[in-house]
Amino acid sequence: MGIQTWTFIIVGLTFALYIGIAIWSRAGSTKEFYVAGGGVSPLANGLATAADWMSAASFLGMAGIIAFSGYDGSVYLMGWTGGYVLLALLLAPYLRKFGKFTVPDFIGDRYYSNVARTVAVVAALFVSFTYVAGQMRGVGVVFSRFLDVEVNTGVYIGMAVVLFYAFLGGMKGITYTQVAQYCVLIFAFMVPAIFISIMATGNPIPQMGFGSAGDDGLYLLDKLDGLMTELGFTPYTNGTKSMTDVFFITASLMLGTAGLPHVIIRFFTVPKVRDARKSAGYALLFIAILYTTAPAIAVFARTNLMETVHNTPYAEIPTWFTKWEDTGLIAWTDKNEDGKIQYLPGSAIVGKQPEFSESRGDHGERIIYNFSQGINELYVDRDITVLANPEIAGLPDWVIALVAAGGLAAALSTAAGLLLVISTSISHDLIKKQLAPGISDKKELWIARFSALAAVVVAGYFGINPPGFVASVVALAFGLAASSFFPAIVMGIFSKRMNREGAIVGMVVGLGITCYYIARFKLGWIGQPETSTEAYWWWGISPEGFGTVGMLANFAMAILVSRFTSPPSEEVQEMVENIRIPSGAGEAIQH
Amino acid sequence: MDTSQRKKYWKENLRYLTILLSIWFLVSYGFGILFVDQLNTIRLAGFKLGFWFAQQGSIFVFVILIFVYVRLMNKLDKKYKVNE
Asked: Pairing between strand A312-313 and A366-368?
């Protein structure tokens, strides 16, 4: 059987499984639809959170980003895991005790204000939509690569599958499909990683393998640093970003992680406060398995690329190289006409992607139009790091098919979690809480279902017509979550004195300054293009790291304003007292 | 649970948070970022120590921190009889 047949079989089986789970776990009430009835075990919630959290970008892109940025890639590793410590210690147990359905619920009640609730709803919708657009695109890309369909067709298939279980089961359906999706994705990620680690160093544990020595007795990382220095790259373990920027980006990603509504909402689904704490631990454990393996894969892949490709005549290149060249993820231009591939610092092309012509060059390579004047001859798409791994390691076809199923599981689970936040924001926070408070539970459930439908359609539209560059969109989502939700929730729990005025001013200032900075320096919507460069960044902080500044501004403004306005009422202070005590969470959800 | 008991419970909780979050800050921002160059002069098998903390060590410590917190809080809840 070929790769194609295996892919159809394995992807088909996993999809059948997800749909089966969706039918089995249909939601009968809004409580089941929004928070899976509050009866998910901490272990299952940990698995579901991990799948929810790890997107197609984590699964396919992360190892590649690290492989091509070395130490600088640490910002993602620490940033996207460290946030869970904040979540477990500062947010999850208290929000679970508070015991309602959404983040705007908490903000609205704690700050006794529909204005605050509305600011939170708008922020939640904005964060979730920017995030989900990238996911739907990811689904399409995975489909197109593995099943040979158009990217847009892939988006439609993905929309149909997500809609099916989000519409039927809400949070309940999503939770149990995510448990299955985690198992698929982690198996698909680890199998090739273990094989490659054995091949490179003889150590089956990738986390230890990349600190070991290869056949030549040299430590892998030393060898890689040596190779890179020799060719004029910055050594792998050193990095090129400034320390300030690394610090701020890491902080922004951590605080953003802790403030993302689709992550927070998962902790409303467990029965007790102690379960919320524990399931945050499980979630991070399951995430850490992938996140500590990714840097190992990165090192194996980068070393392999430098060793097998640089200065090798095109005629003698291994077959995986030409295969990925055919898909357009690798491109080579023989700039110095020696028939060999030179892989050197600098971009080999002008723009983001190579533009291929129909014809072939002297050596049989695909000719590209937009090659650059620099000395580097090789373009490699970063996603290839995970995609090509099984082939480079010479693993059987079914493993390659498994990676396809894993990538799809990662993209679908994240998309579904986000869609639920969007539909809940509309049906619960906007309609039930503000526009039509009198509607029955049954009616609200149907509104939630149709909001999910509408959200899938909008997300699908963004997937087909992606807004700008998706990576900047994700930076935006984290920056906004860090500068709005994180401070508002933390102060809501840890400061009884924090009031409505402070929280609203804080959120608006935090959001405003972060939006401005990203629009100014990342999207180029404001200001002159020539002053939008790195040299003009404030304090040398990149747009990715600016969420941290937004967060500090939020805290500062909120504290300042709250000191000059009246404290919250007795009842609100009593509520804060109450969420600090874990007992009684079971009843709190009945409202 | 009366007010003074509540206050005590909250105070102990905040003490745990301060200690655990200090460790959280130290292993990631400290070892992985601010002191990375100094730590990189120390080796752990094939790893430079600062690089290891940035890409592996900090993550392991994060996981341990949460489970330690879970244990501490479960004990604290029992002590003040607010467990379920």
From this structure: unpaired
